[in-house]
Design a protein that fits this description.
With about 400 residues, this protein is mainly α. It has helices spanning about 15-25, 30-35, 35-45, 50-70, 80-100, 105-130, 135-165, 165-185, 205-230, 235-240, 245-255, 260-270, 275-290, 300-325, 330-355, 360-385. It has 16 helices and no strands.
């Protein structure tokens, strides 16, 4: 496959390029952004149990973790645009095959393969973002695209499943991949630059290594707690007596409000260090998650989901940035993304076991406890980095 040359290329470091790169990176993990719609669609469209639907969702993200880890060893030697096109076509093919599968075990295996390919695409996208000027701005744009596209998905797809069937879930993923395949034709080449001089690797000491491990643990716990509850959020709303016509639109709007968290990160950066934003954001996430115990009150449902959507985007940006600050080679950043994906994958799987036959209060309490542990794990490494003593 050869990349097309007759498309006009955007400026490599302009806003248009940031948007296109955000779509490229989102395409590999779009199913994470519509996880509630996917899980609920499998339950009510295909008759899966909580455990079976959670397994399918988790295997998708476990595959992503494997793919992202594997691609890290090859990104410098790949023709990235050729590789991206191949990976996008593979995603489309796997989504088409997923439409034909009905058994939960076979579908879980199929989605693991899909996740592996998607994870490789995400890793490829991050490697290109790292070659741009001010990559933090591109990361902020990535979160904006994820929140916007995810909001649209969770708002519309649960309402379409009863009409068009569960295959509409995979059709949405195919549409997003096809759109991204067109978009990347307008991106420039982003050649690999010679290695710049590297500064001191703070993760090289025993203390730095311990602090990095605590930072990675905080990323894992934060993502696992949030995704574990989020994957079953539609079921929680149903159990609380809310109507689907209310649940889906409010979840979609909450995702869009989550864009504010990404914007805050871009605006604040490290003006107040990283400890204060992380602890403040984590605390608000804990409060918002605990409030879901009163989800039967519509205003509590709305405020809680909007608040958590904002703080989720806000906190994870700082947590991943904290991991990246432990060295300048990018190795710690790779591990941070790996810990994030492992958390996203493990959350729905563990949550499905805890949930059992709709024990949503137990699930909420567990998520709060894990978030508290994540806050404690992040405090020491964040504080040391702020003081320059990691």
């Amino acid at each position: 496959m050869s990349t097309a040359t007759h498309f006009a290329k955007v400026s490599p470091h302009g806003m248009a390029a940031r948007v296109l790169l955000a779509f490229l990176t989102t395409a590999g993990l779009y199913y994470v952004n519509i996880m509630p719609a996917l899980v609920d669609g499998l339950k009510h469209g295909m008759g899966f149990t909580n455990q079976q639907a959670g397994l399918v969702g988790s295997m998708n993200v476990y595959g992503a973790a494997c793919g992202a880890f594997a691609i890290a060893f090859f990104v410098r030697r790949l023709n990235w645009k050729w590789a991206a096109q191949c990976l996008l076509l593979a995603l489309i093919g796997l989504d088409l095959l997923s439409m034909l599968v009905e058994g939960p075990i076979v579908l879980a295996g199929m989605r693991f393969l899909h996740g592996t390919v998607g994870g490789m695409l995400v890793g490829l996208g991050f490697s290109i973002i790292a070659r741009t000027q001010a990559p933090d701005r591109t990361f902020g744009m990535l979160l904006l695209v994820q929140a916007g596209a995810g909001g649209l998905g969770v708002m519309t797809l649960p309402l379409l499943v009863p009409i068009l069937g569960p295959r509409v879930l995979f059709a949405a993923l195919i549409g997003f991949s096809a759109l991204t395949l067109l978009m990347i034709q307008f991106l420039p080449d982003y050649p690999v630059q010679a290695d710049a001089p590297r500064s001191r690797d703070v993760a090289g000491s025993a203390t730095g290594t311990r602090m990095l491990l605590m930072a990675l643990l905080s990323v894992f716990l934060f993502q696992a707690a949030n995704m574990g509850l989020y994957a079953f959020i539609i079921g929680l709303g149903r159990d609380a007596g809310l109507e689907m016509s209310f649940i889906s639109p409010t979840l979609g709007i909450s995702n869009w409000f989550g864009m504010l968290g990404a914007l805050l990160v871009v605006m604040l950066s490290t003006r107040f260090g990283i400890l204060t934003p992380i602890v403040a954001g984590m605390t608000l996430t804990i409060v918002g998650t605990a409030a879901l115990a009163w989800a039967r009150l519509e205003w509590v449902w709305v405020v809680s989901n909007v608040g958590v959507a904002i703080t989720w985007n806000f906190v994870i940006a700082y947590l991943l940035g904290m991991c990246a600050r432990f060295d300048r080679t990018g190795q710690a950043a790779v591990w941070g993304r790996f810990a994030s994906k492992m958390g996203l994958a493990s959350g729905p799987l563990v949550a499905s076991l805890i949930l059992g036959e709709d024990r949503y209060l137990v699930l909420i309490i567990t998520a709060v406890a894990i978030l508290v542990l994540g806050t404690l794990a992040s405090a020491t490494p964040a504080s040391r980095l702020d003081r320059g003593t990691a």
